[in-house]
Amino acid sequence: MKIAIVKLSALGDIIHSSIVLQFIRKIRPDIELDWFVDARFFHILQDHPLIDKVYALPLKDRKILKILKMLFRLRKKKYDLVIDLQGLLKSAILSRILSPNVFGYDKDSIKESIAANFYNQKFFISYNENIIIRNLALVSFVFNESFELDDILHKKDCFSPKIELKEKLKEEFRLDENEKNILIHVGSSIENKIYPKERFALLCNMLTLRFEKAKIFLCWGNAKEREFAQDIIAHTNSAQVRLLRKLHLQELIAMTKLSDLIIGNDSGPTHLAFAMNKPSITIFGATPSQRNAYQTPINKVIDSGKKITDARHIDKSDFCIKYIDEEKIFELAVELLQ
User: Each residue of 196-252: pLDDT tens digit?
Assistant: First the structure.
């Protein structure tokens, strides 16, 4: 049996979807499984042991002819079914080109309802349901199998760092396994998801006072985020707070595994902690924490308390995240680190 998963972007959505791989392999270990992804995020899935082949599509470059040629060529693989975990018009069209047998969410379960017209097998689940449960529920529908919430709590790591990469980073950043290593992701692709630099600085100061030998590493993804992280360091009073160089995605996986706690905004790099069973605190403002993160005994959220009735309509002008007290994040961090 040959199947394809279509989850093109963004980084956080791909990370949240990765849990389905171990579920599928558990019930159908014999299948051939491919994944179609935006080329920008290819490296997060590169060499994944549960994927037979990852196909990178140059969507950002809008090389439509090249993409179509690739899809029609791969259609000859004759996939038995395609699962569109994205639920967008572009992913639905792509899925339908690959196979006439496409599973996806129905029109009431997705943001772009027109996408459902391209699925011959449709599944309903509330758009506001937790994203991990949404992904597993659709795959359960595909294979006519059920999953339990314990399957989420007891999942294996969704990503595995390369051993040589871990060792390289341990040496480069002088990581001591006997001390606390805290990774903070300062950025996000959406402005109102970003926790204020002044509060991040206060949080770092509290953490370094409480854990005198801890190291705090600030992670960034572009020049603007790097400048943001430098401003945080300028307002801290400890050499324990350090600026990382830019990490590529495989290095990000390794650094996440090496960290004792990950703190960050509602973003892909922060959500990687949940996927790898590492303690984390995700900070939410105007986005729904109950949908975008799955809480466990070691994966916690701090949010503004904002009531979001429909995740399809997020107010990007709402910066309520700036009112979240860093003291609350600190208290949760101490709890997770002890």
Answer: 999 999 999 999 999 999 999 999 999 999 999 999 999 998 899 999 999 999 999
CA distances 324 to 132, 184, 286, 318, Å, are 25, 16, 11, 13
The span from the CA of 214 to the CA of 270, in Å, is 19
Number of Cβ within 10 Å of residue 335's Cβ equals 11
Can you name the residues that pair with 303 across neighbouring β-strands? Answer: 284
State the CATH class of domain 2-153: alpha beta
Domain 163-337 has CATH 3.40.50.2000: yes
pTM, entire model: 0.96
The pairing of strands 102-105 and 121-123 is parallel
Within its chain, how far is the Cα of 174 from the centroid? 27
Q: Which helix (H) or strand (E) holds 96?
A: helix 89-98
> Domain locations in the chain?
2-153, 163-337
